[in-house]
Amino acid sequence: MLTASGIAKSYGPRQLFSDVTLELSAGRRVALLGGNGTGKTTLIEILVGLEEPDEGKITKPRDMKLGYLPQDLVDTTTGTVIEEVIAGAGELADLAHRLHHLETQMQSQDSSVDQDAVLAEYGEVQGHFSAMGGYALEADARKVLAGLGFSDSDADRPVREMSGGWRMRVALARLLLAKPDVLILDEPTNHLDVDSVAWLEQHLANWAAALLFVSHDRDFIDTVADRVVELAEGTALEFVGGFAEFVVAREERLQRIEAAASRQAREVAKVEQFIDRFRYKATKAKQVQSRIKTLQKLELIKPPDRKQLIAKFAFPEPPRSSRVVAEFHDATVGYDDIPVVSNVSFAVERGQTIALVGPNGAGKTTLLRLILGELQATVGTAGLGTNVSIATFHQHQADELDVDKTVIEVFSGGIIPGKRNLRTVLGSFGFPGDAADRHVRDLSGGERTRLALARTMIEPVNLLVLDEPTNHLDLPSCDVLEDALTAYPGTVLLVTHDRHLIRNVADALIDVRGGHATWHTGVPDAVLTPADPGRLGSKPRNGSKTTDPRAERRRETARSRQATNDLRKRVKKLERDSEIADAKAAELAEQLADPEIYAKHDDVHRLAAAHEKAIKLAESLLAQWHAAAEELESNDSSEPTSS
C-alpha cells in the first residue's frame, strides 16, 4: 500500500495543490483527473519519489514494488523487444538469466568447472523457476506484446530501431508483465490504436494490484477505474465509481456547495442590511457591533469555479469544394512495390467528418498520404476533387511551436487581417484575456497542443486532416476540440484513438487493417471496441463476450449520442440552408425594388413568383430549424454533464 498524507506543492508564488491525501491499496484502480496545469504529473512524480513535496509525507512498505510509465520516456534500452519486456519480470528474469548461464557451464569442456555442483544448482534454480511459472514467462510476454499491437516478428527487433511511440509500448508491456504492487501510468493510451486501447482496458479492469492512471479517454476511465480523484480547487477530491458516476457525484457536490453558498449569501445580506439600517442608532449600537464582529469572523463559502472551456466557434466560410472531396477506385498504395493498403474504393463527400481507425502500422498514415497526394496509387486511381484546400495537424506539431513567442504571436502569424478579432477566436480555444500574452515556453504540453490545433483550424480551408489531435489534451480541451469540429464548416479526416470524440463528431469510419480499408457508414461500436479482444492476445472476460454493465451502458450512451450528433448536424445544415434562402429572398426583393424592372411585364411576374417561393422556403426552413434546435436543446439538457 502507498499512502500520501497532506501533500502540498508550490512553484514560486503559484501553489499547485495542498492537503492532498491519497491511498493506493491492492485492487484499487484510481483515475487521476484535472485540467492542464493543475499538477497531475507533479503529484505522480511525488508519489514515485522523483519530486519532494513542500508539505506532507509518502508512506510505503520497504519491499513494495512500484512501476511507473511517464509521458516522456528516457530511453536506456539496448536489447530486443522480447528481452526488454522479460527483463521487467524481476526475480523471474534473474532466474531465467541464471539458468541460461548454468546451461552454458554444463555444456562447457572446461575441466575447472565442477559439473556436479553446477548440476545441483541447476536443479535447485530450475525447481524455483518452474514453481514461479517461469516457463510461461516468454509466452506471457508475447501475449502482452500482441495485445499492444506487436507482431511475432517485432519481438526480436532491437528496441532502438523503433519509433518513440513503439518504445513507449515496450515500456508499458514490461510493466504489465512485471506486475508491480503499485502501477502508475501517465496517459498510457496516447500511443495506442483503438484495438490496443480496447485490449489494455480489459487487461487493467482485472488488475489485482493497486493502479493509478491519468487519461483523457472517458471510455477507458469508465471501464478501468473504480474511483476517480480530481485535482481541482487546489486539492484532491475523491469520488467512488467510474467516469459516469464521477460526473453525477461531482455535479451533486457542486449543487450542494452552491446551495449552501447561496443560503449564506442571503443571510449575510440580511445582516448587512440590519447594520446599514441601524448603524447610527444609539439604541441598536450593541446589536450592530455584534453583527459586525460576526461577519468579520464568518468564513464565507466559496462556490467552486465552474468555468470551463466553453466555446462559441465562428469559423470563416472556406472556399466551396466540389461535392466529392476525395475519391478512390480499386486503389492500391505502398512503398517499393510492396502494397500496404489494397483495393480501396470509397468517396469522401463535402462536409463529412471521417475517422480513420485500426491498428498502428496497418496503413492509416499511408492512406492519408495517398489522399493528400503525397503518394501515388500503384494500381487503380485516387485523387482529390476540385478546389480542395488543405490544412494538416500531426502528432508532434505542438513541439514545433516557437517557444520565444507569445500565444497571440504564434496564433496570428501568417493570418491575413480581416473582420475576425483573433483574440476572440483564441479565447474560444481556451486562451482568454491575458492568457493570450503568455509565452509558449510557459504552456503545458496540453496547452501547446490546443494552440497548435487552433492555429491549424483557423485557416480558411475546406479539408482538415488531423492526426491524433487529443494526445496530451485534458478533458475540457477535448471538449473544445469536439465543439470546434462540430462547428467546422468543411470536411474533416480524423485519426484518433479517442472513441468518445469519434462517436460525437464522425459521420463514418474507415477501418484500416489487414491490407484493406473498409468503409462503415455511421460509427459502429463493434469497430471501436472489438467484441473479441482475445484475437489481440487476451481472453475475453468471463470466457465470452463481456457482460460488464458499464460496457453496456457505454454502448447505450453511444447510440444516444450518435442520434444527438445526427440531430446536431441536421440543425447545422438547416441553419445554413435557411441563411442561403434568406439571402436569395433578399436578392430577389432588391431586384423587385428596381423601378426599371416594371417596364418588363413578364420579368415582374417571374421575379414576384420567385420571390414568393423564396420567402415560403425561408419560412419553412426557419420553422424546421427552430423545431430541430428545440429538440436538440431538450436532448442536451437530458444528458449528464461531461467533463
Describe this structure as you would to a colleague.
There is one protein chain. The chain has 19 helices and 18 strands. With 643 residues, it is an alpha/beta fold. Strand 15, helix 15 and strand 16 form a beta-alpha-beta unit. The radius of gyration is 31 Å and the shape is flat. The relative contact order is 0.09.
Task: Supply the key terms.
6-stranded mixed β-sheet, alpha/beta, 18 strands
What's the helix and strand layout?
Layout: E1 2-11, E2 14-24, E3 29-33, H1 40-48, E4 55-59, E5 66-69, H2 81-87, H3 91-106, H4 115-131, H5 137-147, H6 164-178, E6 182-186, H7 194-205, E7 210-214, H8 218-224, E8 227-232, E9 235-240, H9 243-278, H10 285-297, E10 324-335, E11 338-349, E12 353-357, H11 364-371, E13 379-384, E14 390-393, H12 407-412, H13 422-428, H14 445-457, E15 463-467, H15 475-487, E16 491-495, H16 499-505, E17 508-513, E18 516-521, H17 525-528, H18 549-592, H19 601-638
Parallel strand pairs: 3-7, 3-8, 5-6, 6-7, 12-16, 12-17, 14-15, 15-16
Antiparallel strand pairs: 1-2, 1-4, 8-9, 10-11, 10-13, 17-18
Helix pairs in contact: 2-6, 3-4, 5-6, 7-8, 9-10, 16-18, 18-19
